[in-house]
Structures are given as C-alpha cells and as structure tokens.
Design brief:
CATH class of the largest domain in chain A: Alpha Beta
Number of strands of chain A: 13
Strand content of chain A: 5-15%
Helix content of chain A: 25-40%
Oligomer: homodimer
Shape of chain A: globular
Number of domains of chain A: 2
Radius of gyration of chain A: 21 Å
Largest interface: A-B, 48 and 48 residues
Strand order of the largest sheet of chain A: 3-5-4-6-8-7-12-13-11-9-10
C-alpha cells in the first residue's frame, strides 16, 4: 500500500502513521501539511458514514489552516507542526461551534479557544474538528458513534468521538475529558492509548464542567510516544525527571490491584489482566497482588461527589431549558438535589484524605496494573449506553494519572485495555513505564 | 429628596433603594423596570466619571432589556424582576463583551451566558453591565476604579467594580468572585455587604479560572436581605433550614478568631473588632476569644496552592501572549513554575484535612467574628494596589461561607468591615446570623 507524495514515498498510508512518525516529515517539510490533511480528510470521508465520530468537520477550514501552517518558515514550526488533533465537543474553539451534543448550544461558537486549544495551536497543531460526546459530557447515553472494531458495539463515552476517531485513524491525536471513566474506558473499548493525567495538570478552562473536583482533561493516541508529545506541550512534569533511556522491566515491580469493583470484571477483563501479568513476568518484572482496603469506600464517595456537583453544574440549564436535556442528564440533576450537604462533604473529605495515603502506597511500585473496563465494549442498546466506568471512577477520584494500554483482545475480538496507575504528578514516570509495558503487550495485538 | 414617578412617590431617590425595597414595586408594576433603569442610568452617568466602576455599560441595551421585562405579565415575573445586577468582567455574558481587563480578550463576546447569569436572567434580573476587575481576576494591580468613599483610596480587588458600583448606588446587586480576598476585602473597603458562599455552591462555569480549588463566586449588596435574594435564586440551602423569625442575639455564642495573621491588623481593624464585640455583648451575646492553632499553616498553604494552580490557568496566555499580561500576572505564572509538585500536594492535602476539623470547631458557635481586612482601604499607589487579602485567604482555602458586614468606620472615615464565618454549607444560617448582627452594627454607621 505504498503512497506517493510530491516529495516522499511512504510504506504505509499517511492516515496510518502515528504523530511521532509523521511529525518529523511535516516539520522538515518532506510532507506538506496540506498533503497530510488531504489524506486524513479522505480517510474521514471514506469512514465517517460508518463511524460518525465527528460533531463538526469542515474540510475547507482544515485545508485553510493547513496551508497557513505550510507557510511557516521551518524555524517557526512547533513540536506539533501540522499534526491533526480532534477535540471533544465540550472544549471551546473560537473557529468552530461547541455544541456539547445539546440543543441549548446548537451552532454556538465560543469567543475564545480554551487554553488547552491555544496551547495546541501555539505548538503548531492542526485542529481537525470536534469529536462526538454524550450530552454535556455527562450523559451515559451515547452519540450516534460506532466502535471502529465492530459497529454493533459502543466506542464508550463520554469522549466517544475522540476515542473512535483515533482508533479509526482519522487523526493521530485527540483530546477528551474524564469525570468517571470517559477517557480510559473508551480508550479500552477502542483499542487506543489513553492518558488521564493528574487532575488539573492541564487547564480545564473552556471545558464544560460536569463535576468540578473530578473532571480531568485527557489524551488519546495510537502510541505512548504520541501521548508524550501532548504531555510535553502541556508542560506535564514530575518533580524528578525520569532518567533517560528505556525502563528495564527486569527490575520493575508492579502491584496488581483488582480494586473493590473486581466483582464487575467480565471474563475478558480477567483474562486480559492475567495475560498482561504473564507478559510482564515473562519480561522479568516482579508482580504482586495488592489488596487496598482504603479503596473500598471510594466508588460510593465518587458517585456522591459527582452527583452532588453535577447539580451545581446543571442547575441553570435544568431550570431554564429542561426540555432540551436528555433523560440521563435530567436524572443526574434531580439525584443531586437529594444528596445532603453533609453526605457530600463526608464523601469529598473522605476522598481528599485517601489521596495522600494512596499516593504513598503507589510510590512503592513502578506502577500498579488494574482493569480499564469491565470487559469488551458492550453491544449497543436502545439508549446507546456507553458502558460501565466502575474501574476508572476510583482513580478519577484519587486524581492520579492513568494510562490505558491496548494490545489484548477479548472473546469477541474486541480490544480490552489495561490501566497503569502512578501517584499524583508522576505523569512522565508513568509514560516511561507505559512505553516499556506497551512493548510486551504489542505481540498480542490483533 | 422625594422623587415622582408615573405611578408612585418615593421618599428616597430610586437609586438609593435596596433590591428588597424596590423589588416588590417592580413585581407589582407600581414602578416600571424602564423607569427604574432610567434612574440608575442617570446615577451612573452622574457618578461614573469619578468612580469608573464599569468595564461595559450601554444604556440602550439596558433600556431594551428593561422594556422587555416590563412586557412580562405579572405571573411570569421572577423573584428578581427588574432588579439591576452588575457582573464582574470575568463572567461570561452572551450580549456583552467579557474582557477580563486584558487586551487578549478585548471586544470578545462569549457565545453563551455563564450559568450564574442564566439563573439571574431566569429570575428576571436586569443585567446592567460588566464591572471592572483586576487583570484576569488575579492581578493585585487595580483597574482605574476609585473608592466611592474617597477617590484617593482603592475600592479593593479583584471584584473592584462590583463593590464600588453597589457602594456608590449604581446598582443594588453585583456578582464577583474570590480566590484570596476578592469579595470580602472590597466589601470591607467600600462599606457594603458581601457574601462569599461555600465553595462551588454556585457554578463557576463561564467564570475565568485563577485557582480552580479556591475560586468562589460571591455577591455584593447594601443589605443582608438583598444578599438573601441572590442566595435563594442560586439555590443555596443548608441541610437544616434555619428556623423562621429573627435570631435572638441574647442566646448567641460567638467566637472571636483573630487568626494567624492578626499581626497585620491595623488599629482601625483592632478597633472595629472591639466595637463589634462590644455591640454584640451589649445585645446580650456571649463572645469568647478563640485560638485556633490549626489555622497557623493555612495562609502559607493558600499561597502555595493559589500560585501553583495559577500556573495551570495562566500557562496558555503566558506562552502565547505574554506581552499582553501585566507584571503581576506574569510574575504569578513564573512563581508557579517554581513550586514543586510535592509542595503543592502537601499544601493542598493539608488544607483538605483542615476543612472538616475547622467545620467541627465552627459548629460549636453561632458564628465566628474575624477581620475582613487589615484596616481601611489603603491610599492608591502607582500600581493602584488593591490591598492585602491576608484575613480572607484563610477562609477561602477552607471553603467556608463568609459575610462581610459594614457599619463601622476607621480614623480616616473609611468603612472597616467585620467578617462572620460559619461551617461549609451553613450559608442560610450565616445569613440569618448576619441579619441580626447587622442590626446592632447599624447605629454606628457613618
């Protein structure tokens, strides 16, 4: 499938290249941004009728932006020069509508880019469009997007289109957000790499609020290296820079944490965790099963905090435009009204007290391994439900960075990811670990 | 100074009336919203050259909105029908620019109202304009606003214009936001009532982020009853509804908390606290001096958290438009880069652990009394510095509700407020206490 361009021949179609593969070609001018954009647009036009990953997609404006980037002299090209990025449609963009999959916001174009978009543009990224989301990023009823691996199954949510667009190779990079499991779960279902960084390491200004103490911006890509590109432009840094060079797994020590929701793990997830453990042990890593009783109350605390805070976020739209909200969103707002202030505070303070305890525990290990989802992506139901975030919500509450790694598949041939978790603000360390772990999972892909 | 209107004669000029006084007249149609708006516009046009409280003020659009409200049949009139509200210019409005006192955002008109604005409009409020702010709500260098009590002195910040516009009787109500002391301090300096509710009791969506875990929406008015109108439309509620009727001070028990920054109290503040205590004791209240050693580390923790989180909020504008940021904002972003992740987490977790401890302590008292500012509003300097938030930052960190009550004056004839503080989500209780305390402070006004 060699593909000719004006200046270069590629052994694979351009849309298949990761950001790390195509980035140097774009920066060096061996491939024009316009040419690259054309290849991706063709991919979207071919695939979008089946996938429906995009809430807003305008080839003309993409091409105009691409030509502008091509006009930049080499010394002004940023680290993401010409790389196409999809943005979940709850993220403000000044040149595209931001509709939150909600009629209240139809056709509304924000006055300013969210800061996270400003940083992408400053780095030279090509903003490719807005990806589909559940309503206001908080419904569990999906948009019309299908899983690229099987169009009868959900891609997950709420960052539905971001995961699907990356998995289906429309773009190499996409941005989403997670409150319970909205980054790691769709990454698991769609078989891509996902990072939920430490909470508030990336500004959430201009990103719709669901639960202010839980919402976290996250990234999707098809390689850990690509995620690292985003981590760098957003200035994610640990107190101690991880040493250069690859992390050797033979000296690594992992804890397997089944977490208090282990009873929800389906055979596919049990098998995935076993396979990942076996692969790591085969690579020389030490793995131990770790019971963490401090995690037991966290799932309920998470639900209480999320629901109570959703009331604050949704109250204005609920009051003024209730008929324009979907059933799930309405029910969230109603449920929030029935949580007492003392129950909310007990949950919030409980989580807050658990964070340093869990950090201290995690620090003893290279990383922990834990499920990314209850199993393979569920079959689409009438509500297009986006699956259970049970295995993710715990880590969202604790604000620790989580990477989903693909590579394993379930009995229906669907991807099943595994999560690596590190203490807060160990994002770069976690990416380094993820690079090594991804290598041992790779042979099992497909 | 009687004033004639088409339907009614008032003993005082309309602009002097509080929201609670003028509200029933507007709702009952004894005064048209247009007539009321005209009176306030005349007041602004008379005073604004001296005060400069407004970042955006357009009489034509105010009058158009007023006429629309007048067209509503009585049964569709909301609890704030026709009441004029000023909005700090870091709050998104879909029909007015939101400029954050920053050239980057000049003339930018957001696509949607912030939810807090939606709720005001749903309640029938007349959005009167945007009030001046320090840059991005985070600089300590003031906008060109003067203190209505003395134009050589600062009105405080960062909710500068909101405090000044209410104090100077341009509007009866205004909305601001506080990260360190940006509501309570200007309320103290300008001699108005201010409420910083419990953190996140009001949605901060569409309000510029400075420090995500500290920023709190707050209210300004000239009476506690007016503040209560806002508290009601925003759905502030305690778990236990305070009993009807006035709170008798004879059975009340107050704790006087000087706080760890007491050494910063100027004679005016020392005297104000003594005078308030004497007035409460004369009304039969029990007052005891309370030392709270748990508060000792909070001021430093607050600074660390605010500065570290400011880095996240400011990084995009700092990277892309540094030349458009003022010195203070630039220095905040740079300072944030030098705070280690572990120092930030220690401060954040320290505050989080202190919150339930302090709540439990506060619950033993009717309320605590503590200073609202280091003293009277300082004289304006070359940077138009907005004064010290030292006495407020502690309570911002702890997320507890705080009311500033005016009524006392310092040696230069300037207002000096006192703060009442209650545990988290005891906002309605606090307002009830504030009503009674305001009565005993009133005779000393002026």
């Amino acid at each position: 499938m060699a593909q000719m361009t004006g200046t270069f021949t590629f052994s694979r179609p351009l849309h298949e290249l990761t950001a790390s593969e195509v980035g140097p070609l774009l920066r060096q001018g061996r491939l024009s941004v316009e040419e690259y954009a054309c290849a991706l647009i063709a991919r979207v036009e071919d695939r979008e009728p089946h996938i429906r990953a995009w809430a807003f997609f305008d080839p003309n404006s993409i091409l105009a932006s691409a030509r502008k980037l091509d006009g930049l002299p080499p010394n002004q090209r940023g680290p993401l020069h010409g790389l196409a990025v999809g943005l979940k449609d709850i993220i403000d963009t000044e040149d595209m509508p931001t509709e939150h999959n909600c009629p209240i916001y139809r056709d509304k174009v924000p006055a300013s880019d969210a800061p996270l978009v400003t940083m992408l543009r400053s780095a030279g990224a090509l903003i490719f469009g807005k990806t589909s989301t559940t309503q206001l990023g908080c419904s569990s009823h999906g948009p019309p997007t299908n899983n690229p691996h099987n169009d009868q199954r959900t891609p997950g949510g709420s960052s539905t289109g971001s995961a699907a667009a990356v998995a289906d190779m429309h773009v190499p990079l996409a941005i989403g957000a997670q409150t319970a499991g909205s980054v790691i779960r769709p990454a698991s279902y769609c078989g891509v790499v996902g990072l939920k960084p430490t909470w508030n390491a990336v500004s959430r200004e201009g990103v719709r609020i669901y639960s202010i103490t839980l919402d976290t911006v996250g990234f999707f890509a098809r390689s850990v290296d690509d995620i690292a590109l985003l981590a760098d432009i957003y200035g994610l840094h640990d107190d101690t820079q991880p040493p250069c060079g690859e992390l050797g797994l033979s000296t690594a020590r992992f804890a397997l944490v089944r977490s208090p929701v282990w009873h929800l793990a389906e055979p596919a997830t049990v098998a995935a965790l076993e396979a990942a453990s076996a692969a790591l042990e085969a690579a020389g890593a030490h793995i131990e099963l770790l019971e963490v009783s401090e995690l037991d109350p966290v799932p309920q605390w998470h639900t209480t905090v999320m629901t109570a805070e959703a009331r604050t976020s949704l109250l204005a739209d609920y009051g003024a435009h209730q008929h324009n909200l979907d059933d799930f969103v309405r029910s969230q707002c109603q449920a929030g009204q029935h949580i007492s202030r003392s129950a909310y505070l007990a949950a919030y303070d409980g989580i807050a007290a658990a964070r340093p305890t869990i950090d201290a525990l995690l620090e003893k290990y290279t990383a922990i391994i834990t499920p990314s989802s209850t199993g393979e992506a569920p079959l689409l139901d009438g509500m297009r439900s986006t699956g259970s975030p049970a295995f993710n919500a715990i880590w969202s509450a604790l604000r620790v960075p989580v990477v989903n790694l693909p590579g394993l598949t379930g009995p229906n041939g669907m991807p099943v990811g595994i999560s690596l978790v590190a203490p807060r603000y160990h994002d770069q360390h976690l990416l380094k670990v993820a690079r090594s772990v991804a290598c041992v999972l790779k042979p099992r892909r497909g």
